[in-house]
Each structure stands twice: as structure tokens, then as C-alpha cells.
């Protein structure tokens, strides 16, 4: 039997390149493109005036954000800085880059605001063209949950409507995969626009078959926490004709393990490490 061919995985820059630049910022996304990522992974939330904002939390993080007056955010009160209750003009004045993230010592701090999804798409595509590289893929994670409905975000149906309006306005449907841990929003997306690739994110050890049964359809991709990936899961995912893109992989040894197993992509805070590994 011939040896199993090695799949060269796509490089997905997690929140841009969180280990190197402030997360979910233009600086992070542009640096990720300079490094040579295939896909920009990012998170979206909704402002009070229904703008699609790139942010992991639907509030200002106490770990690395300042409010519009330049004051540090109290971590114990960060959820009071609810982006769903703030117009984007107010969000735009907040700095979430100059403090730096203490969990990522290689991160280079710089003043940075939370951009709109449309701005990231437009500038990302323009910058890739200037670099002479293919247009990037956009892995857009919709951050919602039943507990957050009406409090930190709109209903899954309306959330999806707002995100799709940006995707269509920027003409990037062919570059886009929608991701979510929330099966509800993926179900709505599957029913409304079956041609758009969807990815189910998971962080528990529930069997793949149970996740797919709860979802009600087979998505284009499966995104487990990287420690959940073994040879059995790779075989099961590929037998379902799904792509397997684990997250968030920051150690070269783990990157090598996953490459050997045959994953289709790797989401990492340190795309420079994965670029170097794949080049040697």
C-alpha cells in the first residue's frame, strides 16, 4: 500500500495573529497577510446601531482595552461595557491595542480600535493584492448563545442577516466560511443560503455523530479544539466529506502532530511558526 499523502494544511491566522499583534485589529490582520496566511479568522459582534464589529467579546475586555476616555477597563465590570448597547462611533474611540495582552509576550502593542467587518474585508483584500498574494479566505465566527440573545446580541436570525449583508455588499461569498459554536445560527444559515460554507466549532468531547445529529446537517467543515483531534476523528470527519480545521494551535510539536494526522487547516495565534514549519 502506498504511503498516505501528506496534506499541506491551510494557515488560519487566529484573530489575525493574536500572538504577535493586538487581536482582531487591522494591524493584526495586515501582519498576518504579510506572514502569508491563507485565511483570516475573526469574530463578529453587533453594535447598538447594528454595525457588524470585529471583536471576540461583545464587551470591552478588561485585560487589554481602554474606554473612550482612555481609562483602563475594570475586569470585574467589563460586561457593563456592552458593545450591543453602544453605537459604533463610541466603540471606535476605544483603544484595545496599546496595553498589550499579558498572555502573549511576543505581542507588539499598538493603539488599535475595533474595526468594522466591512473595513477588514476591504483593506484585507486590497493589501493582499498589493503584496501580490491571492485574496485571503475569511473565517467569520458569529459570537452568539441562547443566554446572550437580546442582551449581548440580536437573535440568531437577525445576527446572520446583518453579517450576510456585509458579505454580499463586499462580494466575498466565495472567500467566506461562517463559523459558530451556536448550532442555531448555523441551522438558520443552512436553511437560508446552502451554498455558503459553514463550520461547526466544538470544545467538548461529545462524539462527532451526536454533534451532527443535533445540528441536523453535515457542514462543510468541523472545528474542534486541537486536543480533541486524533486519527479516529480525522477519519470520521473526512468520511463525512468535511474539512477538519482545529483551533488554537500554538506549539510547533502539536502543529507537526496535526499535520501528520492529515488535518485540512490549522488555526493559530502564531502563523509565523506554522509558515516556518511548512517551509522546512
UniProtKB/TrEMBL annotation:
<dbReference type="Pfam" id="PF03009">
    <property type="entry name" value="GDPD"/>
</dbReference>
<dbReference type="InterPro" id="IPR030395">
    <property type="entry name" value="GP_PDE_dom"/>
</dbReference>
<feature type="domain" description="GP-PDE">
    <location>
        <begin position="9"/>
        <end position="278"/>
    </location>
</feature>
<dbReference type="InterPro" id="IPR017946">
    <property type="entry name" value="PLC-like_Pdiesterase_TIM-brl"/>
</dbReference>
<dbReference type="GO" id="GO:0006629">
    <property type="term" value="P:lipid metabolic process"/>
</dbReference>
<protein>
    <submittedName>
        <fullName>Glycerophosphoryl diester phosphodiesterase</fullName>
    </submittedName>
</protein>
<dbReference type="GO" id="GO:0008081">
    <property type="term" value="F:phosphoric diester hydrolase activity"/>
</dbReference>
